[in-house]
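Notebook entry, structure prediction.
Reason for the run: the old model in the group folder had no record of what sequence produced it. Starting over properly, with the input documented here first.
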Amino acid sequence: MTEAIRLEVGDTAPAFTLTDDTGAEVSLSDYAGRKVLVYFYPKAATPGCTTEACDFRDNLGELNELGIEVLGISPDSVASLTKFKADEGLNFPLLSDADKSVMTAWGAFGEKNNYGKIVQGVIRSTFLVDEEGTIALARYNVKATGHVGRILKDVA
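New structure, fully documented this time:
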């Protein structure tokens, strides 16, 4: 097993193009000149990931007021993301990274401690990318509950 790379504040955000929950392609470059919060989560419709996604949903207005848009990325299929978005009334794009290449480039896939065992998996992570495409905030191994409130305190 290999330890994941870690992005830090000031790093250039790795470029990506992924398919969203509607089947459209979305690229990080689509957000050039805007702030975007990119968060990685392990699996749609699981308790922790649902809590986190709904937290982003419920706070999207406040994030948008700060000029921040949100993208959620997981290894789920487009069909799973479409259902998750509809079931939870999510109001931001969900992107499918089935081969985990984007997660790996962002340091959001690799070794993690899961209930005392070291496993390979998705590392719940959140990044704020600024208008120039630079990492302005990088958080790894975040907790699903209360995470968005902590992000809002950091960026407000």
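Summary: The longest strand covers residues 68-74.
The old model has been moved to the deprecated folder.
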